[in-house]
Design a protein that fits this description.
By secondary structure, this protein is of the alpha+beta class. The chain is 16% helix and 46% strand.
């Protein structure tokens, strides 16, 4: 009997270590994914409401939808869309230092970046604290996703890397009074002003 008890006592540390390893493995497999850890802090707003995040402030004034965009600043040009243009008129400013604004438009199940066809005319230049940029972003999207009665769209705006910072999210119902539909949407040059 004494021999059996001594054998069990010598196995106890090995059993404890095995149990600890099994518990650690179970915990490891139930940790959140890295994409769940590094997410932006969304600041929600509606059209016409100013939203202020940690590094950026923005207000969406309106949305214009149409098959063509006409730029009035040199070089003046009219660009026909393969789908349709969604032009978001907004004002953005940095709240603390220099940085590049990043933007995407969520339309239906898809995410769109601003068109680079209007690189010199549209919003997107570096922001600096105390200076507001007012202008537009132009997105090219399939027309059926922004037809009358379609689901709301969302504009996301942030500075630099959004994973550990604020991201402004503006939800835009397509039947809102701030949404217009035109044959040709005019894209004005970006204006800058001190706050």
């Amino acid at each position: 009997m004494r021999l059996r008890w001594h054998g069990l006592r010598s196995m106890a540390p090995a059993l404890a270590v095995t149990a600890a390893i099994a518990a650690a493995a179970a915990l490891w497999h139930n940790l959140p994914e890295p994409t769940d850890i590094y997410k932006p802090f969304d600041v929600h707003a509606a059209v016409g409401q100013q939203a202020t995040g940690h590094g950026i402030t923005a207000i969406v004034d309106g949305v214009r939808i149409g098959p063509k965009v006409h730029t009035v600043s040199p070089p003046e040009k009219t660009v026909q869309s393969v789908g349709t243009w969604v032009v978001v008129d907004a004002a953005v400013a940095s709240t603390r230092d220099f940085g590049l604004p990043r933007t995407e438009l969520i339309v239906g199940p898809n995410t769109y970046g601003p068109s680079d066809r209007f690189f010199l005319t549209a919003l997107g230049a570096e922001l600096q604290a105390g200076i507001t940029q007012r202008g537009s972003w132009a997105f090219e999207v399939p027309p059926d996703l922004v037809a009358a009665g379609a689901d709301p769209i969302s504009l996301r705006v942030w500075m630099n890397d959004e994973r550990l910072d604020s991201r402004i999210v503006v939800t835009i119902p397509l039947d809102d009074q701030h949404v217009s539909r035109d044959d040709v949407v005019t894209l004005e040059p970006v204006r800058k002003a001190a706050k």
